[in-house]
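DM from R.C. (forwarded with permission)

"hey, sorry to bug you on a friday — could you get me a structure for this? deadline for the figure draft is monday and I only need the backbone to look sensible"
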Amino acid sequence: MGAERDGFIGAFDSGVGGLTILSRLVAELPHERFVFFGDSAHAPYGDKPPEEILALSRRTAASLVDEGAKALVIACNTATSVAAPTLREVYPGIPIIGVEPALKPATLAPRHRRILVMATAATLRLGKFQRLEDRWGTDSEVIEVPCVGLADLIEKGDPGSPQIRGLLERYLGPWRGKVDSVVLGCTHYPLVRDQILEVMGDVALFDGGEGTARETRRRLGAAGLLAPDSQAGSVELRSSIDTPGELALYRRLFDLARGSEP
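My reply, with the result:
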């Protein structure tokens, strides 16, 4: 199955977190048409067994490809770790781009002695992250902090809630003043970057959105699938909780991720 230049780019996540990746994609590729699907009815993926994550990812990917997606962006660290190899086997004719914790840029930063990686438990225990750490973490002390329940709270749509602040204080507070940087290893976490900085103080934050957007442009260009500059870009937001209220939440958080007022 081959991809067509006038197709859309399908992006998906377990919920609202992938909107942070979508915001980077739109900034990098303003002439492309995007369809984003958030599987909020089954969020978060990070607490699920791999076979369930794979089944959910395959179902979403099949729907987007059948509809005419020319490329897929797996806007979820956990789904990338579990499903990307299988999806690339199933759909060899289209570019499939994943996201991974931004450990590499964190280790290349001037201050990189101690790096805290906050992520879902699934992302941290799966082989993809362990290989990433083996390759790039040799010069740094990498501190893994599984943030159980954090993506759940962010999914509720109130990034400034005291509950989120309390959870961040519990997970990150013990490391305040003790690390050089924090890697946001779940696509939900950039939505609460201000709260993270309030807890952690003067640290650099790294997330995988920018690198994913650049890689998407590179892969589309190599395949001859970039939209022409004459095409007007567009964004369609979808959720497995298909209600007006949920879609309004998606739009508000997408605007927040782009730096706009919610």
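R.C.: lifesaver. The beta strands are 8-13, 33-38, 69-74, 96-97, 114-119, 141-146, 181-184, 204-207, 234-239.
me: no worries. The chain has two domains: 8-99+209-257, 103-207.
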